[in-house]
Recover the amino acids of this structure.
C-alpha cells in the first residue's frame, strides 16, 4: 500500500467516525425536541394553573359570566359519571371480546377481529360523537349523559379488547389444563382461573383506557354537550372537565382562561396519576406471570 | 371460587352422580363462548354501524350535491350551498406539515432509543414519550392558544417571512392562528405514536442483521443505516401512515389554533379549516336539516379516509411483524 492511499484510507476512516458522531448528536437532539413539548406544557400548566387550583375550584359551581371566582365541581363530578357510564359499555364488551380472541378464536377469525380493532383505534374520536348523535341524540331528542357515556364507551372497546387479549395469552396453559383435569367446566376455568390470574393485567388495560377517554373532548361536544349547573338526570346534558376547559379556553374572558388552566392542571394530574398507578401495577410483570 | 362438586360427596342418588360426572354444564360452555364471540364481534359491527349511520345521516346531502360536494369550495349555510373542498384542502395541508415535522424527528428519536442511546437513559426517555402521548388534545390546544401561537407570531413567523417571504407559502400578514400553527400542533400530537411504533419496528429487526454489519467493521451509524433502517423500511412506512391517520382526524388542538376560516390560500400564515374542526365547531349550530346532513357527509368523508389510511398502515405493519417473526423462527 503506498503512502498516498494509506492517508486517503485514514481520512476516510476519520470521516466515518465523524459521521457516526454526527448521527448520534442529530438523533439525540431529535429526542430532546420530541420531549420538549411535554416539559413546556407542564411548565406552563404549573405557572398558569397552580395559583387557581384551590378549595373553591373543587367545591363551587361556575359563576355567571362577568363574576370572578367559582369552580368546576360539576364538571369534575360529571366527568366521573361519564367515565362510569362508559365503563358499563366498554369494560364488559372489551374484556369478554378479548377473552374470545385469547381463548376461543381461530387464527383467521382473530386476525380479522384484531385488524378491525386496530383500525377502530385509528378512527377519529369526533366520529363517535357524530354517530352517537345520530343514534341517540336525534332519536331521543336531546343531549344526555347517556349519549356522552356511550360515545366514550365505544372508544374504550377496542382499547380494552386488545390489552385483555394480550394479558390472557400470558397465562400459562398448565393452569387451564389443571382446572379442566379436575372436571371444571371450561367457562368456569376461564372466569375463575384464567381471568383471575390475569386480573392485574386486565385492570391495567381498563385504567389505561379510562385515562385515555378521561381527556376526550371531541366525542362529548354534541352528546354530553356540557352544562353550567348540576346534572340531575342522566337523560339531561352533563358537564365534563375537558369540555369545560375547551369552552373556557376559547371564551373572551380572562377569568375563564385562568379557570381553564386550573382545570387543565387538574385533568392532567388525574391522568398522570392513573398512568403512574399502571406503572406500579405492571412493574415486574415479566418476572411474575402477569 | 366455585368448583364443580365432587360426585361422591354430592349425593348417593345415582342420577345426581351421573349429572356430576357428565361433562359439566355443556350449556354454560356454549353460552359463554357465544357471549364472548358476540362481544368480540362488536368491533366489526361498530365499523359497519358507523359507516351505515354516517351514510344514513347524509343521504339527502349526497343526493342533492353529489360529487360536487367534494370539489366545490362555497360553504354558505344561509344559501344552503355546501362544498367541502376548503376543509379537505385544510386537512391535507395541515397533516402534510405535521408529517414533514414529525416524521424525521420521530424516526430519529426511535433510532436513538433503539440503537444509539446509552442503555441507562432509554427507559426514562420512553416513559417521557408515553407521558406526552397521554396529554389530552384539548390541553395541548389550550397551551397552543395561549403559549405557542403568540410565540410563533412574535419570533419564528417573522423570521420565516424575512427568509422565505418571496415564496407564496410565507407571504402576507401574520395573524398567529394559521395553517402552519395547526400543522405544528398536529405534529406534536403525532410525535409519540410515530416514535413508539417506529421503536417497536426497529426493535423487531433481528440482531443477526446488526452483528453481520458489525463483523464487516461498520460503525454504529453504518450498522443502523445499512442493517437496521433498510431492513425496517416497510414497517417505518407503516408507522408514518399510522401517524397520517391520526393527523387527519386530530380535532380539538387543531380547532383551537388553525383559525377556522374556510379558504384555500397558498400562504401558510393564513387561517385554515379542517374536516374534523368544522364538525366540532358547527355541528350544534346546524339549524337546517341539509346543513346537518352536510356535516354528516363531512363525517363520512373523514371516516372513509381514516379507515382507508389505517387499513394501509395496519397491513404494512402486520406484514412487517410477520416477516420478522418468521425470520426469528428460521434462526
Amino acid at each position: 500500500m503506498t503512502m498516498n492511499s494509506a492517508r486517503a484510507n485514514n481520512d476516510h476512516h476519520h470521516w466515518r467516525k465523524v459521521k457516526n458522531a454526527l448521527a448520534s448528536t442529530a438523533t439525540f437532539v431529535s429526542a430532546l425536541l420530541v420531549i420538549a413539548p411535554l416539559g413546556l406544557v407542564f411548565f406552563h400548566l404549573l405557572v398558569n394553573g397552580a395559583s387557581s387550583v384551590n378549595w373553591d375550584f373543587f367545591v363551587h359551581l361556575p359563576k355567571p359570566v362577568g363574576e370572578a371566582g367559582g369552580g368546576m365541581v360539576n364538571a369534575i363530578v360529571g366527568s366521573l359519571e361519564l367515565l362510569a357510564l362508559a365503563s358499563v359499555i366498554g369494560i364488559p364488551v372489551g374484556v369478554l371480546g378479548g377473552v374470545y380472541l385469547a381463548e376461543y378464536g381461530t387464527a383467521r377469525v382473530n386476525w380479522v377481529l384484531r385488524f378491525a380493532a386496530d383500525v377502530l383505534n385509528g378512527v377519529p374520536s369526533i366520529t363517535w360523537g357524530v354517530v352517537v348523535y345520530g343514534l341517540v341524540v336525534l332519536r331521543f331528542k336531546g343531549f344526555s349523559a347517556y349519549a356522552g357515556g356511550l360515545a366514550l364507551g365505544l372508544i374504550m372497546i377496542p382499547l380494552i379488547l386488545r390489552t385483555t387479549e394480550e394479558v390472557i395469552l400470558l397465562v400459562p396453559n398448565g393452569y387451564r389444563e389443571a382446572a379442566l383435569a379436575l372436571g371444571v367446566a371450561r367457562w368456569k376455568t376461564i372466569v375463575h382461573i384464567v381471568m383471575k390470574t390475569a386480573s392485574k393485567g386486565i385492570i391495567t388495560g381498563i385504567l389505561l383506557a379510562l385515562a385515555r377517554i378521561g381527556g376526550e373532548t371531541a366525542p362529548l361536544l354534541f352528546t354530553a354537550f356540557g352544562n353550567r349547573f348540576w346534572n340531575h338526570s342522566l337523560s339531561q346534558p352533563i358537564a365534563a372537565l375537558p369540555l369545560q376547559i375547551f369552552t373556557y379556553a376559547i371564551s373572551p374572558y380572562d377569568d375563564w382562561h385562568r379557570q381553564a388552566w386550573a382545570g387543565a392542571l387538574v385533568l392532567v394530574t388525574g391522568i398522570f396519576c392513573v398512568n403512574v398507578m399502571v406503572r406500579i401495577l405492571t412493574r415486574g410483570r415479566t418476572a411474575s406471570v402477569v | 371460587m366455585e368448583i364443580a362438586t365432587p360426585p361422591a360427596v354430592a349425593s348417593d342418588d345415582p342420577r345426581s352422580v351421573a349429572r356430576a360426572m357428565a361433562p359439566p354444564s355443556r350449556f354454560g360452555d356454549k353460552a359463554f363462548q357465544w357471549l364472548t364471540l358476540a362481544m368480540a364481534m362488536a368491533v366489526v359491527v361498530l365499523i359497519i354501524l358507523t359507516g351505515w349511520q354516517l351514510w344514513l345521516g347524509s343521504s339527502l346531502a349526497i343526493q342533492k350535491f353529489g360529487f360536487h360536494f367534494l370539489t366545490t369550495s362555497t360553504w354558505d349555510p344561509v344559501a344552503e350551498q355546501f362544498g367541502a373542498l376548503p376543509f379537505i384542502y385544510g386537512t391535507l395541508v395541515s397533516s402534510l406539515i405535521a408529517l414533514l415535522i414529525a416524521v424525521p424527528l420521530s424516526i430519529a428519536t426511535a433510532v436513538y432509543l433503539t440503537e444509539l442511546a446509552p442503555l441507562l437513559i432509554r427507559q426514562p426517555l420512553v416513559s417521557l414519550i408515553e407521558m406526552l402521548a397521554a396529554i389530552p388534545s384539548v390541553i395541548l390546544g389550550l397551551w397552543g392558544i395561549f403559549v405557542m401561537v403568540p410565540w410563533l407570531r412574535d419570533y419564528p413567523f417573522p423570521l420565516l417571512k424575512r427568509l422565505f417571504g418571496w415564496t407564496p407559502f410565507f407571504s402576507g400578514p401574520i395573524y398567529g392562528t394559521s395553517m402552519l400553527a395547526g400543522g405544528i400542533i398536529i405534529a406534536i400530537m403525532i410525535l409519540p405514536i410515530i416514535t413508539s411504533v417506529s421503536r417497536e419496528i426497529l426493535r423487531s429487526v433481528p440482531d443477526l442483521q446488526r452483528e453481520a454489519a458489525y463483523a464487516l467493521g461498520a460503525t454504529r451509524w453504518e450498522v443502523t443505516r445499512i442493517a437496521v433502517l433498510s431492513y425496517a423500511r416497510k414497517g417505518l412506512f407503516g408507522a408514518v401512515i399510522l401517524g397520517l391517520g391520526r393527523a387527519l382526524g386530530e380535532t380539538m388542538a387543531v380547532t383551537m389554533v388553525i383559525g377556522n376560516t374556510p379558504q384555500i390560500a397558498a400562504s401558510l400564515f393564513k387561517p385554515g379549516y379542517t374536516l374534523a374542526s368544522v364538525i366540532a365547531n358547527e355541528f350544534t349550530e346546524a339549524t337546517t336539516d341539509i346543513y346537518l346532513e352536510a356535516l354528516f357527509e363531512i363525517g363520512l368523508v373523514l371516516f372513509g379516509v381514516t379507515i382507508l389510511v389505517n387499513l394501509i398502515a395496519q397491513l404494512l405493519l402486520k406484514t412487517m411483524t410477520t416477516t420478522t417473526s418468521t425470520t426469528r423462527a428460521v434462526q
Q: What stands out?
A: Chain B is about 75% helix and 0% strand. The mean pLDDT of chain B is 89.
